[in-house]
């Protein structure tokens, strides 16, 4: 055994990771249908008017406003209906004095018309089925969406570095753009370690367990803007860990699980010290004390505990901000709710504790069973932070529950 000589605080670990984060400069071209939640790497400027023509904002009739002057329910103005216009249909003729055209929302305004009267302000004329009675006067431009009211040529629509939300994708699509240049997603190599690991679906031999961390970490990486590159498990030999790092040479971020503690077969730290700089090894936190962070050239390497709960919990805290910074995504501001603790909790002195909880109405019910029990998190809605200086929380304490990450 090689015991920890020192540990750092979680706040110091977070600062170290943040200082080492490097935004990805690579770019790629993607179809606009695949661009949502990516980060734009070019300015998008308009090359046309949006909308490209005057269009109706209502279902009704395209009219000359002057033909409705003085109209009331008791003294209507009667107009002849020339055509019916639907979205995408252009009128064959023009609107002239004492005429109109029935028009649907979004249809182009015909030449000669300068307003749209809502269908609710009309009625069929008793004189002739081809005529309507207009029951109120309207002004020029009423219920018309003018050409270019939204966008005119050379308007800046979305700037470089913007997150492509659905609304921004829609604004760009309205210009007819079918592909965009975006920043590449960070490539994240995920390397579980351990002789005991077996891929789900294979039979288990005595002493073996299924490899959980590669799947949970991959899901977390994809949720926060990265491209997950599962590498397969590395055996508990220094040479095997070295080879796994070699296979991950094209990754921007490497995440290892297992092998970062202090046992004689915990060889990840040895391999990282051979290849690069270990910036910290050991955090005063529960769970996840063996967590380490290193750099190998341009690569950022996070080594997490092999215990599933510890691994995923610390990935939520450390990997997510690192990944989002590299992906140029806004840092996540987790949602929080207030709740009362359902039972008393003891916490280790001198260590920050992240305690998973589920919400039961306004109560926070602890779900932590142990660092190795993944159901500690699968049954949890979020977690509470118990500071280093607190060793006990009594039942009924009001706590702040940080909800687990969402896209």
Walk me through this protein's architecture:
The protein has 407 residues and is of the alpha/beta class. The chain has helices spanning 10-20, 166-173, 213-223, 238-247, 268-275, 308-326, 375-378, and strands at residues 27-31, 44-45, 55-56, 60-63, 77-85, 99-103, 115-118, 122-124, 131-134, 144-145, 156-158, 179-183, 187-192, 197-198, 209-210, 227-230, 253-257, 277-281, 285-286, 292-296, 299-304, 336-341, 345-346, 352-360, 363-366, 382-386, 392-393, 398-403. It has 4 domains: 10-26 and 184-326, Molybdenum Cofactor Biosythetic Enzyme, Chain A (3-Layer(aba) Sandwich); 28-49 and 164-183, Molybdopterin biosynthesis moea protein, domain 2 (Alpha-Beta Complex), CATH 3.90.105.10; 55-145, Molybdopterin biosynthesis moea protein, domain 3 (Molybdopterin biosynthesis moeA protein, domain 3, Beta Complex); 336-403, Beta-clip (Beta Barrel). Strand 20 and strand 21 form a beta hairpin. It has 7 helices and 28 strands.
* Major sheet size, sense and barrel closure: 6 strands, mixed
Instruction: Give the strand line-up of the largest sheet.
Output: 7-4-6-5-9-8
Could you say which structural class the secondary elements and strand pairing correspond to?
alpha/beta
CATH architecture of the largest domain: 3-Layer(aba) Sandwich
Range of helix content:
10-25%
CATH topology of the largest domain: Molybdenum Cofactor Biosythetic Enzyme, Chain A
How many structural units, i.e. domains? Answer: 4
Average per-residue pLDDT, rounded, comes to 92
Number of helices: 7
Dominant shape = elongated
| End-to-end Cα distance | 40 Å
Please count the beta strands (DSSP E, at least 2 residues each).
28
Name of the level-1 CATH class of the largest domain: Alpha Beta
CATH superfamily of the largest domain: MoaB/Mog-like domain
What is the gyration radius calculated from CA atoms? 32 Å
